[in-house]
Amino acid sequence: MEFTNVKCTSFDKEFTEFEYCYLKSVNRSYKYLSLKCNLLQAPVTKIKVNVAFFKRFSGYRPFMYNVTVDFCRFLKNPSSNAFVNFWYRMVVDYSNINHTCPYNRDIRVEKLPIGVVNFQMTEVLPFPEGDYLIESTWIAYDIKRVEVKFYGSLF
To answer: What fold characterizes domain 2-154?
Structure first.
């Protein structure tokens, strides 16, 4: 698996704002993702997340899953949704989203290495080769606030 792009979008600049969102290639074999989303109206106590998975077939088409969960409830019992937990386990060790609601601080993912994503997508749950888009939409208080799109190729 190789990251090819990441796009972070804030739909409500008075509620959230991205300080940074990028991929960094250290060398040919080490690439990582970092992002920081500033919460401008903390604490946040009601969060839903939609995770959708797409594969490229003449454009990106839905592939396998499109799931929305109450994120605060999910954090109390991560095994309640296997699909969201699959993605959560990839990120949790590199982020500060490892606790239940409320969120009082900015959300960060720091130096998530491609090796972790590669292991999940090739060893834990093998996916077929191709180009993928993982789209996460974060909804606070029933208003769409943030969207993060991860693009990658599996070969």
So the answer is: Ganglioside M2 Activator Protein; Chain: A, (2.70.220)
pLDDT given for residue 48 in this prediction: 96
- The distance from CA 20 to its chain's CA centroid, rounded to whole angstroms, is 14
Query: How far apart are alpha carbons 28 and 98 in whole angstroms?
Result: 30
Cβ–Cβ under 8 Å, residues 18 and 149: no
Q: Which residues contact 39 (CB under 8 A, 6 or more apart)?
A: 15, 16, 103, 104, 105, 106, 107
Taking the C-alpha atoms of residue 71 and residue 139, their distance in angstroms, rounded to an integer, is: 9
CA distance 130 to 11: 30
Q: Using omega within 30 degrees of 0 as the cis cutoff, is the peptide bond preceding 126 cis?
A: no
pLDDT category of residue 102 using cuts at 50, 70 and 90: very high
Q: Are 48 and 71 in contact (CB under 8 A)?
A: yes
Break the chain into its structural domains and give their ranges: 2-154
